[in-house]
Structure prediction request, 819 residues.
Amino acid sequence: MDSGNSYKLTDGGKSQWRYKQHLCSLFCGMLVFAVGIAIGVIIGYFIPGPNANCPQNVPQPLSEPQGNKPELTTTPEPKPSPGTKATFCPNDQSEIKKAISGDRGIFEVLTTNEMSRVRNVLVQKGIVTIPRGRPTLTDGYIYGMSLYLPSKKPALEHLDSGGPSPGRYAEVHVHRGNLDKPDVMEYKVGPVDSSSMTVHQLLKDGEVHYNARPRDSVEYNHIIDKLKVELMPLRKLMMESFDGAYFSDGGLTVHIQSPPGLTPEVRESRFLLQIKIDETSRGQDLHPLPLTGTLHNAELNVSKWYTHSFYYLNQGPFATAQELLQSYNNGTIRKFAFPKGYRKTLFQKTFPKPNSDKPRRFSTTKAPPRTYNPDGPRFTVNGHDVEWMGYSMTFGGSQFRGPSVHNVKFKGERIVYENSLSECNLIYASDTSSSANTIYMDATFGFGEFQDLIPTVDCPEHGTILDATWWDVSQQKPVSASSICIYESDGEEPLWRRKDRFVGGLRNTFLVVRYPMAVGNYDYIIDYKFYLDGKMETTVTASGYIQASFWDPENPHTGTDKMSDMFGFRIGDYSHGSLHDHTFGFKVDLDVGGTQNTFEKVHWKAGDVLKAFQTQTPDMKEKPVYFLYNKTRYLEYELIATEQGMNVDMARPEFWTVGNNNNKNKWGVRRAYHIIHNTIGSQTLPHDHIAMKAVAYTKYHCLVTKHKDDERSVSGAYDQNRLLDPIGSIDRYVDGENITDEDIVTWLSFGFLHVPTSEDFPMTIRNTAGFVLKPFNYFDSSMVFDVPNYIDTKSNIITERVPNHGTCAEPSVKMCYFC
Prediction:
């Protein structure tokens, strides 16, 4: 044979034996390969499921290697098991339809294009004198813009009867520093989709005094520049006291506190020095210093501004910086000094990073559990209109007031016309010259200056993100942020269950629409939640840096231990957790079975049996003999006929309901919704406190009034700066009007009392409060049986299961913030 693939028999038979051995080896190898493929196919067919890529339970070491830091910018992509082809669950969001700017509904946020067109109209009218660039106090410039909500009656005619659209208008707040008598003005501009917009002035000239204007970045920059000069004489005092630091380029910064004045004519900006913390803009709030003062900045002319009322370690007031320095140099006041090198230690204590000096918890190198949509999202979005499981609603937001949801329908019936955040009030208490007098109305500082979400923190990987817009005063241009997260959550608990002669239940899932917001040193998260049974929940969660006050280790006002005082606790080296509260105000306009509603209290009472019967039959003389005991629980119904406020009283429970007397369920009972407060906060300040006129909404957990289009919020846009003379107090809404069978509005307040403790350092961990809107005889029966439940019966007469999503792996998702 002369083939290159053959063996020559020239070695006495050995070559033939080798040839047969080679063929056998080839055959065995092919057989093993084929068996391996078959086994791989069998394993790939029967074993992989939704968690095919997850590690199996194997013994783990008792300790884990240290120093392994988690990846912060991306989530790992799924890795298929060897020999298998991964099938990922659908993550197609093609059903999410983005509405074009000219096709937005009457409640959706303005687009950046609409905002720019409004600005151009105001420039053409001469109202805005700086069309582009950075404004100054002597300019006419826009400091806020949002959608102007339409009047309710034409809005409902448009939504329900196909009437003409009331149009989309912009509400624009303008700083008019270019006038002979400067003021602030509000305008209604639109329709924003029209080629010829009109500009309507909403206030009278001079109605809002110039000094009552909200503080913006334009004024703040002037304040910093002025303080650089005014604080220069105190450089020696600052460097000796504060470990070589000084203001403003030497490691110190200032925090401007509120209110700037109690009447609209006054503008006195109290400032507090703080230590700068690298890589943060508000970490310094944990490290206040015992040096404060006041800047008089009431005039438009910055050259006339001056400082006064200086305090050092609560010693003062000193009329000028020079007077304080003289007392310091003379040794006539008590002094303070940080240990040398103290400032270098603050980043480690302040920045919320993993502890490098402590071992990580067991198993922290493993990824935590999370949920996703195995069959793709079950909700649809068109612009800011959302539909899910029988619900439909529109989500919006205001730069001036924050998040909102409008036109909430369940199974085709409107239940909520508006549920919108309106205000948050904080009043501090502390034995310092700064926090002792601090009052904040947070809506003044830009609830709706929305920012991009934090990936995987604010929004799960399977969430859908929508935009929200606001007006950047410093850049004089609109901003669009990816700031609304929508996702369906697995509650991992029963919505209902029963184990009887049958077993049954339904796993709780609900839709979440989330708005995270950074307002100063605090972060607020507003969650709107919708449940399968028609229940709706609104929650507010607070996190972020607390605003601490200085802990003076030699404070003569504290007790002997020097670790706590009447205003809170020591929580850091020189930090005190100032006592304060957060009281949120929401406008909740329910339309139950229509707009003709009535507010009713259902009292949960206990007492004599005869007294219980007499609530229904007043002339009854004796209790029925079948009542063996003369005490019982019973309900007493109270119709609220006129506008009034009320509070939660745990000792006297009652159900607050909004219902329709002319709209009954199958059993002839008035259809209603029950307002349930989830709150631990109540206003404890007396009504003669200087803030209570402006924040009167905090006096009540619920205030019910007749609907009026001009009653839009729980507080005035300028009342932060005129507490003794507010123009937007909710008390003016209560004027004794009839609210029986009327279009009514409930104004709900709730919150939490915050006593900061060491666990709030460096970061506050979730303080949460809110309210629930729950069906109260609204339906004829439970509304969760038109979705698949889990049901088993012994006789197999009825068997039901939720849809099986089959076998698939979590979709690959990459999310990061700064990349």
Summary: Residues 1-20, 40-84, 98-102 have pLDDT under 50 and may be disordered. Residues 243 and 344 are 9 Å apart (CA to CA). The helical segments are 14-46, 112-124, 152-161, 217-230, 235-241, 321-330, 346-350, 609-614.
